[in-house]
Specification:
Length: about 210
């Protein structure tokens, strides 16, 4: 009986097989790395988009509230009051001072003594007024209340504000951001929200409109 020889080709891989295997593994690893980088960039961009939307919604809430309770409204462009349908970059609102202090709404430090309202004809007065301003500095949206500045949308969004009087007396506010996307070269996240606000007639005293 003839048995097969056990002294033929030795076990293992040849150099060519190793090179081919390493090449396939390298291509596979590179593909995984590209996919992982793209997933990371998409996750960052999705979080950024959500953050910017939250910023815009917060600014909308503040604007709607302050415009509605304003007794006087002025729109500025570069320090000059604008009228008619000309756009401006700053909104100045004269609002009732409901409290004796001017602390931030969510700051629990200090006292808050309500000013008792009084009724004169059809107008309601709370004893005094304060100036609330909205503008952008360094890409951040600032809400200034009685001289106290507070960012309500951070600078990373490169925000732009625009205000304009409508023919019916409403105030058109436009909130726009333009933020570079992560890992996409020159592409940017862009979103604009337009809102229309109107003063309450019982608080309205005067406005730089029309």
């Amino acid at each position: 009986m003839i048995f097969p020889s056990t002294h033929g080709r030795p076990a293992g891989f040849t150099l060519v097989e190793l090179i081919v295997g390493m090449g396939v593994f390298g291509v596979f690893s590179a593909g995984l790395m590209v996919a992982w980088t793209a997933l990371q960039a998409n996750a960052v961009n999705a979080a950024t988009y959500s953050h910017r939307q939250s910023d815009q919604m917060r600014v909308i809430d503040y604007l709607k509230r302050d415009i509605r309770r304003a007794s006087a409204v002025e729109i500025y462009n570069g320090g000059t009051v604008v009228a008619g349908s000309n756009p401006g970059t700053e909104l100045a609102l004269t609002v009732p001072d409901y409290y004796a202090d001017a602390r931030e709404d969510d700051n629990a430090i200090g006292s808050s003594t309500p000013n008792n309202p009084t009724l004169s004809a059809t107008a309601v007065s709370y004893g005094g007024t304060m100036l609330v301003r909205y503008y952008v500095t360094g890409g951040a949206i600032i809400r200034e209340e009685a001289g106290i500045q507070r960012p309500i949308a951070d600078a990373n969004g490169a925000f732009v504000l625009s205000f304009r009087w409508e023919t019916d007396g409403d105030i058109l506010s436009q909130i726009f951001y333009n933020q570079p996307l992560s890992g996409s070269g020159s592409q940017t996240l862009r979103r604009q929200v337009d809102i229309v606000g109107r003063q309450r007639s019982d608080l309205q005293a005067s406005s730089s409109a029309m």
